[in-house]
Amino acid sequence: xxxxxxxxxxxxxxxxxxxxxxxxxxxxxxxxxxxxxxxxxxxxxxxxxxxxxxxxxxxxxxxxxxxxxxxxxxxxxxxxxxxxxxxxxxxxxxxxxxxxxxxxxxxxxxxxxxxxxxxxxxxxxxxxxxxxxxxxxxxxxxxxxxxxxxxxxxxxxxxxxxxxxxxxxxxxxxxxxxxxxxxxxxxxxxxxxxxxxxxxxxxxxxxxxxxxxxxxxxxxxxxxxxxxxxxxxxxxxxxxxxxxxxxxxxxxxxxxxxxxxxxxxxxxxxxxxxxxxxxxxxxxxxxxxxxxxxxxxxxxxxxxxxxxxxxxxxxxxxxxxxxxxxxxxxxxxxxxxxxxxxxxxxxxxxxxxxxxxxxxxxxxxxxxxxxxxxxxxxxxxxxxxxxxxxxxxxxxxxxxxxxxxxxxxxxxxxxxxxxxxxxxxxxxxxxxxxxxxxxxxxxxxxxxxxxxxxxxxxxxxxxxxxxxxxxxxxxxxxxxxxxxxxxxxxxxxxxxxxxxxxxxxxxxxxxxxxxxxxxxxxxxxxxxxxxxxxxxxxxxxxxxxxxxxxxxxxxxxxxxxxxxxxxxxxxxxxxxxxxxxxxxxxxxxxxxxxxxxxxxxxxxxxxxxxxxxxxxxxxxxxxxxxxxxxxxxxxxxxxxxxxxxxxxxxxxxxxxxxxxxxxx
Length: 664
Hints:
Elements: E1 2-5, H1 46-55, H2 79-94, H3 109-119, H4 124-127, H5 132-138, H6 143-162, H7 171-175, E2 189-190, E3 206-207, E4 228-230, H8 246-249, E5 265-269, E6 275-276, H9 282-302, H10 327-337, H11 345-357, H12 371-384, H13 397-409, H14 421-429, H15 434-446, H16 450-468, H17 470-473, H18 477-489, H19 497-506, H20 508-516, H21 518-521, E7 523-524, H22 526-549, H23 551-563, E8 578-582, E9 590-594, H24 601-612, H25 618-623, E10 625-631, E11 634-638, H26 645-651, E12 656-661
Parallel strand pairs: 1-5, 4-5, 8-12
Antiparallel strand pairs: 2-3, 6-7, 8-9, 10-11, 10-12
């Protein structure tokens, strides 16, 4: 990813879009071989058997339709994939009794929409309770996001009415549409003020959205070397101006395995800079997830794609040990030993082992270790790891890679979550442009639970290092994607393994996107942060309104007004455009700084560094600090060093500004 800094906000829009349905595999990728067939499991070694499967593709038709798959590629290029699938199958057969199966439960449409409303923070629309938080969220929605919420709520209410259950409110009561307002089909958008809030006590005023506000910006299919610009300032769904036609969505398009076939993207920084997920507070990240699910749904709606989710029973898993333990439980146990741990310690140690000695090993991840050694090492780790008695020097690189993949496979739930597996598959099957695939993937990453996201980030960072050593280990981006895909996306469901394999094969392209564009995927889109600010402001205003109508508060205010004998001093002696920055860990703990249009966060850090240097050890500390925006309309936000402070100040004038170490 390349990042360029400009002095103004970059507004990027999209080329008129017509997606194609892209099949994942040629016929050869899922041959069905009976036990009596000469290519059966007992008659041939594994890799030779895979080669025969690939070479005899025409003998055995696939168990699924081409129209339901994503991309066709050369059959021999999938050899690594199927060898890995066979290896996983053989290993799972040995310990099948210990595996916890994931059961996907059927649910009617009303239940699914009710769960969706709960997952986006709008459960009050179902319960009928006071919807303060829900109102704050609704006030921030864009045109397409509001349409997505309306569609799901309408489906829910219609289903509930058919079941003769409790009465439900009309959607117009929730969105404040009066008789003179447009109908729901016009998808109105609340008109908000500069701070994103509606006038107090007034119903929303609806305004039209100009569909031409997003200019076409795209690349020709045959010019992948040209860099394409990404903007996070505008809602992704708002910039889709054309819904694909049904006939065009049935087209088959091949993707190429060469790395050069993937578009090069440039992310140009706005005046607010860029923010990663760890730069925001836990409370604000929760709101980011709400908004990301709404935006993802609106994005798929705009492309004419149905966003489906798996509804599963919660998997309990083991409560002790290392393998087969839920990430949250594993982290709770790890944090007793190492407070603040965000990635499981065993996973960190396996990555560390491979980074220290295995990055240059030829065929790392692809060449399997000894199954018996890996099994014995796993048992030994379970008993000795937490006692620091395990000897890592005895572990060979290929065995360590086997343990790493085993850890990922044995998680009770997929690292990228079973619930959203259909959404991952849809972005490959139904979207042909890399840019739109990347945007959908970006929103799905924003939805991940903290433990999954942090662990996935550590894993993808490691895979990037493997590919960087391709000259010595002979592992290209394509090779790594083929090997990793089955481990990430084949889950132990109560269905046939054949279906799981087909889904996993489809996701090989997704793994490639995850590795290639990982630096982009951990960046929080600026439009979501802007919506969080508006949501927090709306919540603050709602609280103020409640206080004003509280009788006891009004009496107290009247008494204070009568007792006041002299004019009240201004709330702050700090003039406009001046901020007071605090650095509690250093000798000069605070400083008032006058901002201008060119002042950046790194300029303030440099000033504190200069004031605190003089050869003292604290100068080193200042250099490792970051500037935080705390309070106001944000919980806590670590600022990009290139953020223009006057713009951030105007967006959140009530914030406090603190220099402190960045949380790792």
